[in-house]
Amino acid sequence: MSSPEDAESGLPPIQVAIIPVTSFQQNCSLIWNPATGHGVVVDPGGDVEIILETVAAYKVQVERILLTHGHLDHVGGAAELALALNVPVEGPHEADRPLLARVEEQAVKFGVAGLKSVTPDRWLVEGETVRIADRDFAVLHCPGHAPGHVVFFDAELRFAISGDVLFAGSVGRTDLPGGDHATLIASIRDKLLPLGDDVTFLPGHGPASTIGQERLTNPFLR
After folding, report:
1. Beta strand pairing status for 38-42 and 26-32?
2. Domain 4-221 adopts which CATH fold?
């Protein structure tokens, strides 16, 4: 949904560029306000040079880096990118502190080079908001895939950034440390499905979908 100012300018309220990073092809996203150029990077898992090239190509003034959770493919480039852009790192929930501390150890295990551990400048809790492209997105704490996983939601735009909680046709894996399937399904049932069937969500891997589509067709939600 656009504001009157958006309608007058002819510009959409936000624009999104998806930047697949690392061998995990994780959806790092650059989200910005085309009227002001203000934006954020969500889940810079690695390949920082490619992220910086995308930021420059769209002429985005990045104001912060946001993390949905602490797995290496979502956070491994955050420290380097924050230093390059001189911006703070915000999120996830502090329950993911142990995951963030083990990024370099996990990177060696998975054979991924160049990833670094990171300590956020701000931990997030449910009920707070984060600023994305000059808009306030609500923070939802959605554990299960990771203990400190958060989702970002703009009720006016009917748009959520879901990380690895919910995917098109699937849900986040729960066989990693800190994962729990029952907790994940409860997060989806109690936090995401009530947002409304018209909500479009951008997951951490694969294509975007809507809450309504997943309610009808996702085999994990039946």
Report:
1. antiparallel
2. Metallo-beta-lactamase; Chain A (3.60.15)
